Amino acid sequence: MAKPLEEYQRKRNFAATPEPSGKRARGKARALQFCIQKHDASHLHYDFRLELDGTLKSWAVPKGPSLDPKVKRLAVHVEDHPLDYASFEGHIPEGHYGAGDVIVWDRGIWIPEGDPHQGYAKGHLRFELQGEKLGGRWNLFRTRLGGKKEQWMLVKSSDAQAREEKDYDILEAAPDSVLSDRSLPSARPVAAPAAKAPAARKKAASASRTKKAPKAALPESLKPQLATLVDSPPQGDWSYEIKFDGYRILARIDDGEVRLFTRNGHDWTAKMPRQVAALKTLKLKSAWLDGEMVVADENGVADFQALQNAFDTEHDERILYYLFDVPWLEGRDLRQLPLQERRAALEAILADPPPELRYSASFAEPVASLLASACQMNLEGLIGKRQDSVYVERRSSDWIKLKCQKRQEFVVVGYTEPKGSRAAFGALLLALHDDGRLRYAGKVGTGFSTETLQSLHRRLQPLEAPRPPLDNPPTGAEARGVHWLKPQLLAEVSFAQMTRDGIVRHAVFHGLRNDKPASAINLERAMPVKNSSAKAMRLTHPDRIIDASSNTTKLDIAEYYAKVAGLILPHLENRPVALVRAPDGLDGELFFQKNAAQLDLPHVKTYDKDQAGQAAMIINREDTLLGAVQMNTLELHTWNATDKQFERPDRFVLDLDPDPKLPWKAMIEATTLTLTLLEELGLRCFLKTSGGKGIHVVVPLQRKAGWDEVKDFSHAIVSHMAGLFPERLSAVSGPKNRVGRIFIDYLRNGKGATTVCAWSLRAREGMPVSVPIWPEELAGLKGANQWTLANIDERLADGNDPWQDYAGTRQSITAGMRKKLGL
To answer: Which SUPFAM superfamilies does the entry mention (predicted)?
Structure first.
């Protein structure tokens, strides 16, 4: 029996397409999601997808959905897609299945009528859609029309959401993405497929692009241009390619003879006869080509250890040569040509390559989304190249690396004995050069297969040495029983973090490297792209990556809080605060800390249990705030009371927390309903995005009622609303109780409970911000995580404060309000 996503995965090369591979598991209980993707492939069409049994059942709808019940739209049944495809937007490269641009035209939840499994099997699904654009009841039914794929029909039912097409065409009225506001070109006219250019025409096109380059004799050797690791994407005209996890190889072609060289000039021609033969089919007289040798795993992701095994066993049939530059071509030196002209010439050469050769495509998507996709696919990261840059034989800032995780080469200086059922050895001891000295850097004991353990052990034994080759060897139990080695081998290792003492944590072995000398291996540090505005504060490890998806560093966090100190401090003032700390970044463990114990915070104000009912700390100054950042704080959460009166809250908060698959417009509707009820009660409120999925409604109060009274009142509000709209809202916590609904959380209104502070960052991928908003902005809001560290400056530039009247608001809970709620 075929696996659910077998056909989907068989059709795609995940090393070259940004589409998700389908490994993400379904989360907690939630409603069934749907999405409609607008896909500008060979023909513009719409892909209609319904979640069922852990995948997205999918239909291609050539003309898109219609709100007119009289209009039946053909829907061609296609292969199941993974659940995370519902949020995929991007460009599928030319030459790959479904090549073209994709946006999410609509998304939300679907509610089947009756048993959806029976309906799907019988070929007639009836359901309700709750999307950003589509709503109401719909039908999908299978026809008797013939063809290679099942022909279904998508039809709108007659209800309040139906519209005659002559009066309203939703495809024309709302053409853009509900996620990003991206647009796609309109449908292209149908044209006959273009015939492939003959080889002679390809070469002519290639030659025409390079004739500006000077003629010169082919050099005997060439050093590759190397990329510089950076902490964030720079501004300017850049193109981005996948950072392949392989061996950098330069190919020299002279009068048809092909030789392959490593980055250090070692001749590896004999190791890859298939790739040599493939290069000969290009019929080039003379050239230098630059690329990466890669072996892909079953999901299309480059596997460095598999590449190492291919070399060790002399099996090169799985090795692919991804080419990305051509510094020399047919008697001309192309190194001074702009990158885009060199790559155009290379693409022409590889217009119809043999299967061993691939063109390393660049992607036109925004770099933030590209990097997020690369990290989601477990790729190493991206390589960025300045479009107008020349080719230089050294490391250059015109080529940059953006990494998904910390990863680099280490010198292998020892190994430990195996324990338990493990064979060969236990762990490798690692080292790095530091100012000419070889210093201990920790151990790696995971990432080895049984085969790798045995083959690696055979390479380690001849290198054994009587004493450690380190300036600071480990001592005590950590050094007991270690077999020390001559420092000659290099291990490619990924790791979660490096301690202040330079020791790797959570290290994973990926393979040995033979293309670099051990003497050249130092700790690779990211070069900051931006100038620091927080230089005055003492900040350790400023280049530590906090969020790999956006390459956010600790310095970026410090600069943000320094920038918004004047905005956030009024909301922190005199309020007990809890900190969310991330010493190892988002990939490590997060700590929620309510007291100042073991925190070195300047001028922090503290209270003990006798004073506040529990240990509490207060941050009233900028240097205290930045001190918290130095202690790896990302989020700040505050009480609903201040130290003026711990027992009487001065606000209550309603946190609208949705089923994640609900469309955003459901959140807008629920917030509007909440505002309407509060207005009827005579209460003024203030809004902010949560920075996650929902909206926070903050109601300031005078300090009159106690905690229980305020919590009971907020509970009554939520129960009243859930009673009025039970199909939309829930007053009961827990994922099962908000399936397809929004839980309005009143539980934050007890003593000691906290809510994330206005202008606080959130410890989530992309580093979103909790931002105050005007009620009038609600309808145009795109999501609760609309503002992030990457775009918050746009919001700050507005200069308007939606909460400017907060401090002057005077109101209390009255008997009349309680009566309206039945209290």
So the answer is: DNA ligase/mRNA capping enzyme, catalytic domain (SSF56091), Nucleic acid-binding proteins (SSF50249)
Q: Provide long-range contacts, Cβ within 8 A and 24+ apart, for 611-618.
A: 611/646, 612/576, 612/643, 612/646, 613/646, 613/647, 613/751, 613/752, 614/752, 616/576, 617/576, 617/577, 618/572, 618/574, 618/575, 618/576, 618/577, 618/643
Q: Which residues pair with 126 in a beta bridge?
A: 139
Helix axes 622-630, 554-563, angle to 10 degrees: 170
DSSP three-state, residue 79:
strand
Return the active site residues.
Answer: 243
Amino acid 537: pLDDT:
61
Q: Which residues contact 107 (CB under 8 A, 6 or more apart)?
A: 33, 34, 35, 36, 86, 87, 131, 132, 178, 179, 663
d(CA 9, CA 299): 7
Distance of CA 266 to the CA centre of its chain: 37
State the Cα–Cα distance between residues 504 and 483, nearest whole angstrom: 20
CA atoms within 13 A on the CB side of 528: 14
- Overall residue count recorded for the chain in this entry: 823
Give the angle subtended at the CA of 578 by the CAs of 759 and 765, to the nearest 5°: 55
Look-up: residue for tokens 């927390």? 657
**pLDDT at position 365:** 74
CA angle 38, 39, 43 (to 5 degrees): 125
d(CA 675, CA 7): 48
Alpha-carbon gap, residue 125 to 132, rounded angstroms: 21
Domains of the chain: 6-173 (no CATH), 204-210+221-403 (3.30.470.30), 406-520 (2.40.50.140), 651-753+764-783+800-816 (3.90.920.10)
User: Beta partners for 34?
Assistant: 50, 108
Q: What DSSP state is assigned to residue 817?
A: H
Structure tokens at 669: 């509707």
CA distance 622 to 604: 11
User: What pLDDT, on the 0 to 100 scale, is given for residue 27?
Assistant: 52
Task: Assess whether pLDDT exceeds 50 at residue 468.
Answer: yes
Q: Give the DSSP letter of residue 232.
A: S
- Residue 635, SS3 per DSSP: strand
Contact 470, 413 (CB under 8 A): yes
**Which pLDDT belongs to residue 525?**
63
Which region, left, alpha or beta, applies to residue 85 given φ > 0 means left and ψ of -120 to 50 means alpha?
A: alpha
Strand partners, 59: 48, 77
Q: Enumerate the β-bridge partners of residue 360.
A: none
- CA-CA distance, 399 to 362, in Å (whole number)? 13
Q: How many CB atoms lie within 10 A of CB 577?
A: 28
Question: Over 80: is that where the pLDDT of 497 sits?
Answer: no
Q: Give mean pLDDT, residues 86-113.
A: 90
Q: How far is CA 158 from the centre of its chain?
A: 41
User: If we measure between CA atoms, which residue out of 651, 661, 759, 756 comes closest to residue 707?
Assistant: 651
Query: Do 454 and 423 contact (CB within 8 A), yes or no?
Result: yes
List the structure tokens of 740. 């397809």
**pTM of the model as a whole:** 0.55
Average pLDDT over the chain reads: 87
The pLDDT of residue 199: 46
In the structure encoding, which two tokens stand for residue 263, read together? 């980055």
CB-CB neighbours of 702 under 10 Å: 12
Sign of the CA dihedral running 732, 735, 740, 743: positive
**Given the DSSP bridges, would you call strands 483-484 and 406-415 parallel, antiparallel or unpaired?**
antiparallel
Lowest mean pLDDT among 210-224, 503-517, 651-665: 503-517
Q: CB of 688 within 8 A of CB of 695?
A: yes
Given CA atoms 68, 73, 79, 84 in this order, what sign does their dihedral have? negative
Is the pLDDT score of 663 beyond 50? yes
Per-residue pLDDT tens digits for 310-369? 887 777 788 999 999 999 999 999 999 999 999 999 999 998 899 999 999 888 777 876
Strands 238-242 and 381-386 come out as antiparallel
Contact at 8 Å (CB) between 749 and 710?
yes
Q: Quick one: which H or E segment has residue 755?
A: strand 755-756
